[in-house]
Amino acid sequence: MQLIEQLSHRSDFTTTETRIATYILSHQDAMPNILIKELAAKTYTSHSAIIRLAQKLGFHGFRDFQRALTTEIVINTQATTNVDANFPFTDKDAVTEIIKKMADLKTNAIANAQHQLRPEVLTKSAYLLNKARHIMLFSQGDSQLRARSFQNKLVKINRFAQIAEMYADEAWNIASLTPQDCAMFISYAGNTDVHQRFAKYCQAHHIPVIVLTGNVDSPLQQFATYQLVITQNERNNAKLGTFASQVSFDYVLDTLFAIMYANNFQTNLAHLKTTQLLIQDGTLQTK
Fold first, then answer.
1. Pick the CATH number of 3-77 from 1.10.10.10, 3.40.30.10, 1.10.8.60, 3.40.910.10
2. Residue 194: which of 176, 169, 231 has the closest Cα?
3. What backbone torsions phi and psi does residue 135 show, to the nearest 5 degrees?
4. Using an 8 Å Cβ cutoff, are 17 and 6 in contact?
5. Domain residue ranges of the chain, discontinuous segments joined by +
6. Which tens digits make up the pLDDT trace of 251-277?
7. Which end of the chain is more exposed for a tag (fewer CB within 10 A), N or C?
8. Where does the UniProt annotation place the signal sequence (predicted)?
């Protein structure tokens, strides 16, 4: 049973829980970004009452409940164009249908990610990356492609990140980090054993950690300074490709870069103009 359906039809809610559920159902557009204290004030209840409701519905707490609810709201809003993230097309589809389905899949994935982003976490993450002496990116498989794209963008604002696992030197790389640096783990499942060991090491040595994952239960989160959790209706296996997860990661990393750029916009713009002149006048031509 869907979460919204449970909020509508559960018969074991207390009077207080029913009031909270009714407010949520009537204000679904506000749910992705509402704080628990705001919801408590709007419903004349308490933090503990909201948490008890979330736990009754099978969640650890309000944050997990909010993420699941946000995902469901977005999917329901876009139901007319919803595409199976795991098998977005079949052998029965014409080329025109595949074109439309892949466009819808990516559009839905970005919209879903947008509703899950927390502006305050993005702001703090961008600040951390802007002031870090070194940025170390940990990622594997398809997520490493996203990390490399992010790494390339950072060069444009004089921020130089390293892909920790590029030359199988990740252990040396993590050991070289200090509290003035930042480790960023980019992993949809967020359950790689080596990443957990490295993140735990960072926490023990006071090295800031940013985690970007699609798993609300990722063990990496317990070691994170800041968490960017973006869920999609995509399984870890039994799928044609990592379409939804990776397009949403691209969107999040592009947004993070944009915030970093905007924080020093005039300086970065001046650097862009200077570099373009050096390239155009032949000083730094590569061809």
1. 1.10.10.10
2. 169
3. -120, 120
4. no
5. 3-77, 119-271
6. 999 999 999 999 999 999 999 988 888
7. C
8. none
- Whether residue 188 contacts residue 242, with contact meaning beta carbons closer than 8 Å, is answered with yes
Q: 211: which DSSP letter?
A: E
Tell me the per-residue pLDDT of 122-143, one tens digit each, with 9 for 90 and over: 999 999 999 999 999 999 998 9
Residue pair 113/244 in contact (Cβ under 8 Å)? The answer is no
| DSSP string of 65-114, one letter each residue | HHHHHHHHHHHHHTGGG---SS----TT--HHHHHHHHHHHHHHHHHHHH
SS3 174: helix
In this structure, whether the domain defined by 119-271 belongs to CATH 3.40.50.10490 is answered with: yes
Higher pLDDT, 249 or 1: 249
What's the rounded Cα separation, in Å, for the pair 73 and 17? Answer: 20
Distance CA 130, CA 153 (A): 13
Mean pLDDT of 71-85: 70
Task: Collapse the DSSP code of 78 into the 3-class scheme (helix H, G, I; strand E, B; otherwise coil) and give the result.
Answer: coil
